[in-house]
């Protein structure tokens, strides 16, 4: 038993070492990855729950690493946050996805404005040139500010003072939508929402998961109903993440959620996928 225990520790150590080495390797490779064009963006549609039409798309970044293959954001966004590379990386994501959205927009003028959702990390939020850069990206692309939605996590805004909220207020005044991402996972006081310059609540996937069972847990349903009615009374739109089944979609539609996102509609994918969905909507 003693030997086995020892081995177990040795194995755990080896795994921890391997993770540390990979993390170190990824961290040192990050700055050049941007210059080498190793990042790319997948887009996941956001649909209207009422009629299933495409409302917009969320930009989700991936890293095509020369040795490790395609890495999801959970593997490198925290590292990029830590090293500060998130600022140039986030700038690239914004620029690229706004350019892409403008391309879709120009080809689907009859379908109403298509929204593009871009994630903002806390470091970007604190960066002094956030507003100027966003204005610059929008102006150069030709996309109207109202087509852009910046997603900020609830945890990034907890305890936010006026200094932190000021750039978001400025963006909101220009017509950019601000969404509160992963809503329900933090500790934010619902009454506090009124203070924040947000116009969209993105209900975290954990709520949708609670509705997987059929029939859904009545307490979960009541909680979501409560959030939706409060959000609507504050003039906020509600988007739900992680919709994986038709039954979930139907339940969320009945509760009054506005838009949804999840594998039931489409996994994140190449920009062409959004293009064909828009073409399908147009007929
Ligand atoms: P998020 O903003 O909450 O994005 C939604 C995540 O849920 C995405 O994971 C998406 O692929 C996944 N998802 C979508 N539909 C479903 C579903 O039906 N079921 C399940 N189980 N999952 C679903 P992904 O792409 O791995 O992104 C993870 C996180 O990385 C994002 O969470 C976001 O916080 C962050 N992220 C992604 N791109 C960027 C970026 O450009 N900048 C920053 N700062 N963060 C990013
Ligand atoms: Ca998001
Ligand atoms: Ca989210
Ligand atoms: Ca999430």
From TrEMBL:
Residues 23-282 form the EAL domain. Transmembrane segments: none annotated. This is EAL domain-containing protein. The chain holds residues 442 to 724 of 724 of the full protein.
């Amino acid at each position: 038993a003693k030997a086995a225990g020892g081995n177990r520790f040795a194995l755990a150590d080896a795994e921890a070492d391997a993770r540390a080495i990979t993390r170190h390797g990824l961290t040192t490779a990050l700055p050049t990855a941007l210059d080498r064009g190793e990042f790319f963006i997948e887009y996941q549609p956001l649909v209207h729950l009422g009629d299933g039409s495409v409302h917009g798309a969320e930009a989700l970044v991936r890293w095509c690493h020369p040795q490790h293959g395609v890495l999801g954001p959970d593997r490198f966004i925290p590292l990029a946050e830590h090293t500060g590379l998130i600022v140039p990386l986030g700038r690239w994501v914004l620029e690229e996805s706004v350019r892409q959205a403008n391309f879709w927009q120009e080809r689907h003028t009859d379908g109403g404005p298509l929204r593009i959702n871009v994630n903002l990390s806390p470091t970007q939020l604190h960066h002094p040139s956030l507003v100027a850069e966003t204005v610059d990206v929008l102006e150069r692309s030709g996309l109207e500010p109202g087509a852009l939605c910046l997603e900020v996590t609830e945890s990034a805004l907890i305890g936010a003072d006026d200094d932190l909220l000021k750039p978001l207020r400025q963006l909101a005044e220009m017509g950019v939508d601000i969404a509160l991402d992963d809503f329900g996972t933090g500790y934010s006081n619902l009454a506090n929402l009124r203070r924040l310059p947000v116009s969209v609540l993105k209900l975290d996937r954990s709520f949708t998961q609670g509705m997987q069972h059929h029939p859904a847990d009545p307490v979960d349903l009541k909680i979501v109903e409560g959030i939706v009615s409060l959000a609507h009374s504050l003039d906020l739109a509600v988007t739900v993440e992680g919709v994986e089944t038709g039954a979930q979609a139907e339940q969320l539609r009945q509760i009054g959620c506005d838009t949804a996102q999840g594998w039931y509609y489409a996994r994140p994918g190449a920009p062409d996928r959004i293009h064909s969905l828009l073409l399908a909507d147009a007929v």
